[in-house]
Design goal:
The protein has helices at residues 3-10, 24-33, 48-58, 72-81, 93-101, 113-121, 137-145, 165-168, 184-188, 192-210; strands at 12-16, 38-42, 63-67, 86-87, 106-107, 109-110, 126-129, 152-155, 173-178. By secondary structure, it is an alpha/beta fold. It has a single domain (3-88, 95-106, 160-210), classed as Aldolase class I (TIM Barrel, Alpha-Beta Barrel). Strand 8, helix 8 (165-168) and strand 9 form a beta-alpha-beta unit.
């Protein structure tokens, strides 16, 4: 399955900042056990590439991507480690074009019509709307997206169990992303059973929102 189709099928992407690569395998196990076999491992920590590699080797059926990707070197490190998709916080033409030239699925962050226009010109099927809640939420996104059909969106920034349902009910939302089920504190303290429970609850909430 195409990575973007797989992301849409799950409807939610845990956004993970790994403080230590040793947390990668138990964290991935918790997500898989919670029926949420997907993760965006962000390059906000030095453990990102190693963590992606550990996840993909131990869980070959898990969909693992790289987030907060700012440079082409990070793209290379992520893909070499096994990342199936790239997510960037903003629209950097250098990073986006580098991915497209290598047929690497990429979702750059957008918050303006100008950035969306650049995505459309490159025939990107989906982008990330970020930071969603700070930019005005679903109302803003619908207004911004109106001239840019059939672009789809992964939405991150301020999303939680309390506010994600209206986003997921809109058919142009690929998925929502968030870190509430994989917070740094939960990971560092080894609360992987809690992560499994939160992942399972998120999966059920997605199904309910899309019903």
């Amino acid at each position: 399955m195409n990575p973007l189709d797989a992301i849409h099928a799950t409807g939610i992407v845990p956004v993970v900042a790994l403080p230590d690569p040793g947390h990668a395998v138990p964290l991935a196990q918790a997500l898989v056990d919670g029926e949420l076999p997907v993760a965006e491992v962000t390059f906000r920590t030095p453990a990102a590439a190693e963590g992606i590699g550990l996840m993909t080797r131990h869980f070959p059926d898990m969909l693992v991507g790289a987030g907060t990707v700012l440079t082409t070197d990070q793209v290379d490190a992520a893909v070499d480690a096994g990342a199936a998709f790239i997510v960037a916080p903003g629209f950097d033409p250098v990073v986006v074009d580098y991915c497209l030239e290598r047929s690497i699925p990429v979702m750059p962050g957008v918050a303006t019509a100008s950035e969306l226009t650049q995505a459309v010109l490159r025939e990107l099927p989906a982008v990330k709307f970020f930071p969603a809640e700070a930019m005005g939420g679903l109302k803003t996104l619908k207004s911004l997206a109106a001239p840019f059909r059939p672009m789809r969106f992964m939405v991150t920034g301020g999303l939680s169990m309390d506010n994600m349902a209206p986003y997921l009910a809109w058919d142009r939302i690929l998925a929502v992303g968030g870190s509430w089920m994989v917070t740094r504190r939960l990971v560092v303290d080894g609360h992987f059973a809690r992560i499994r429970t939160l992942a399972a609850e998120a999966v059920q909430a997605v199904r309910k929102a899309r019903a």
